[in-house]
Amino acid sequence: LKDFKPNWTPEEVLRAGSFGGTYYRPIASAVTNVTYKSADVLKDSVHPDWIKGLTAKQLTSATYRTEINKYGVKCGGSLGMWESSGWIS
């Protein structure tokens, strides 16, 4: 990880619609056995300025929306894929 040098800030990633509006959707984690609510996660993990002016549809949609993604494409994997691969523990 010491070589990891992201070229976008978290705010830029969110504003580009990188997760099709689903990154902060409500989720139930098989790893933690916790159901996470969008409002709680946003309050605890996101600086308010990062999401100022963004709509709930741009952050907490249950459905991936390609029109929100800057490039108009669907990308990424599901929470289940991330958890089952061992990338989230």
Structure description:
With 89 residues, the protein is mainly alpha-helical. 27% of the residues lie in helices and 4% in strands. It has four helices and two strands, in the order αββααα. It has helices at residues 10-15, 38-45, 48-51, 79-84; strands at residues 27-28, 35-36. A two-stranded antiparallel ribbon has the order 1-2. The longest helix is centred in the middle third of the chain and has 8 residues, at 38-45. It is globular and about 30 Å long. The relative contact order is 0.22. The mean pLDDT is 90.
Shape: globular
Give the strand line-up of the largest sheet.
1-2
State the order of secondary-structure elements, H for helix, E for strand.
Answer: HEEHHH
Please describe the biggest sheet, giving its number of strands, its sense, and whether it closes into a barrel: 2 strands, antiparallel
Q: Total helix count? A: 4
What quaternary form is this? single chain
DSSP summary, beta strand count: 2
Distance between the ends: 17 Å
Kindly name the structural category.
mainly alpha
Mean pLDDT: 90
Radius of gyration, in angstroms, nearest whole number: 14 Å
Secondary structure: helix percent: 25-40%
What percentage of amino acids are in beta strands? under 5%
Low-confidence segments: none
